[in-house]
Amino acid sequence: MNAPLAWLACAGAALASVAAPLSAQSPAPERAAPRTADGKPDLSGIWVATGAIMLFEGQEAFAAARAADAAAGRPPGNTGDAPPYKPEAEAQRQYFLSRQGLDDPMARCLLTGVPRINFRPLPFEVVQLPDRVIMLYEIHHAFRIIPADGRPPPADAEPSYLGESVGRWDGDTFVVDVTSFNTNTWLTGVGTIHTEDLRVTERYTRDSFDTIRYEVTMDDPAVFTRPWTLRETFRLRPGERIREYECIESNEDLQRFERLLQESRATEGAQ
Amino acid sequence: MRRLAFLLTLVCGVFVARLATAHHSFAAYFDGQKAVTLIGEVASVEWTNPHFHFSIDVKDANGVVARWRFEGFPPNMLVRQGWQRDVTLTPGTMVTVEGWAARSEPNAGAARWVTLADGRKLAAGPPAGTGGR
After folding, report:
1. Is the CB of residue B23 less than 8 Å from the CB of residue B126?
2. CB distance from B113 to chain A under 8 Å?
3. Does some domain include residue B131?
4. DSSP for B47-111, written as a single string
């Protein structure tokens, strides 16, 4: 089943499962998002992408979360959609796909970039302050400090894994512009390459107590035919805490992949 | 209708979750088409990051023992699934492991579920990723 068809089927199933019991019982109304003293929606809390709910709570909870999103009018997550690559970039992606993810930078414990880091099945904590928003990720113990006081991106920015983030409020939505990326990260799945000209625009909207609507647009004209937009719902994890994550200690992928890469290069060289 | 819708949602949930939570580079080393279910005695447990490992001794019909080594969640996720270091999985106990074998490495695999001697079944690792997403 291809991804768009799957989403269509899933949306239909989710709607049917939500609509069917309506006559018997109405879903509980969602609690309103909290606000900070200065009146802005408060993004603070520990969150995880809905795609990870299956790992945390099982398949039924995951299906229920997607059904709740459909009932509330939140768009379904589409992080598995194919990127709108130009032919040359798509050929590169297909090459990486043919190698089963062997080249994944993350498997070598390199920092995961934006937005991929937000989709990983590990929680992250948002700490919202009046002048900045801090994101603390369990994966790789990574963090982002996002200024929200009107300052421009730093003039001395070097290309980096997570880029340089600058935030601003657009009504009740926290908008983050991210630039100055290096090319050592993938955007989401295997082979989702980009150039240093990548510009990422993230939109975080806490639309209920338990959810953040997340929309991210990646603009990189060198590889894309048009900007690529993905959506996901982040879910509050009450009682959760960010735990330690160490990536090198027993990461056998490093040795395995080195061996597999050598074999792979030998095969390609022979062809 | 409700039941059908629920089942469909469940099936879709599995499909979509695979897209979103595929194990990093699972498919480079493991084969999601090679499902295995093995019963054996725990030989060792390595509570390490970014994956824990354990090995079990599996006896065949002729009494020949093969040692299988499995990889699974990091400790932070194991704890969330109800595991306790040195308590949940201990050498000398019998367990049933469901998972997937490695592509080429013999007697190696990725664990998805471990059923303990007391009947508890705990998630030990993520679902098979395709490597494609």
Report:
1. yes
2. no
3. no
4. --SS--EEEEEEE-TTS-EEEEEEE---HHHHHHTT--TTTTS-TT-EEEEEEEEESSSTTEEEE
Pick among A5, A7, A23, A62 to test the B interface (most B CBs inside 10 A): A62
- Which residues in chain A are contacts of B76 at CB distance < 8 A? 122, 138, 243-245
Q: What contacts B132, CB < 8 A, 6 or more positions away? A: A97, A101, A189, A190, B22, B27
A80:B19 CB<8 A: yes
Residue B7 lies in a domain: no
Q: What pTM value is reported for the model?
A: 0.84
User: Taking CA atoms, what residue in A is nearest to B128?
Assistant: A55
Copy the structure tokens of residue A120: 């990983």
Q: What is the pLDDT of residues A10-59, one digit of tens each?
A: 444 444 444 444 444 556 789 999 999 999 999 999 999 999 998 889 89
> Are A84 and A226 a contacting pair, CB within 8 Å?
yes
Is-cis flag, bond preceding B106, omega within 30? no
| pLDDT for the residue numbered A171 | 97
Domain interval for residue B82 = 25-123
Q: How far apart are CA A184 and CA A225, in angstroms?
A: 21
| Tally of structural domains, chain B | 1
| DSSP-derived secondary structure for B85-103 | TTTTS-TT-EEEEEEEEES
Give dist(CA A167, CA A187) in Å, integer. Answer: 20
Q: Give the mean pLDDT of A208-212.
A: 98
End-to-end alpha carbon distance in chain B: 32
Q: Mean pLDDT over residues B115-124, rounded?
A: 96
Q: What is the CATH number of the domain that holds B44?
A: 2.40.50.140
A121 with B20: Cβ contact below 8 A: yes
Query: Residue B10 domain-assigned?
Result: no
* Interface contact flag, B49 A189, Cβ < 8 Å: no
Q: Is residue A256 within 8 angstroms of chain B, CB to CB? A: yes
Domain presence at residue B30: yes
Is the CB of residue A245 less than 8 Å away from at least one CB of chain B?
A: yes
Q: Would an 8 Å CB–CB cutoff place B35 in contact with chain A?
A: no
A226 at B interface, C-beta within 8 A: no
Q: Are A124 and A151 in contact (CB under 8 A)?
A: no
Contact (CB<8Å) B24/A107: yes
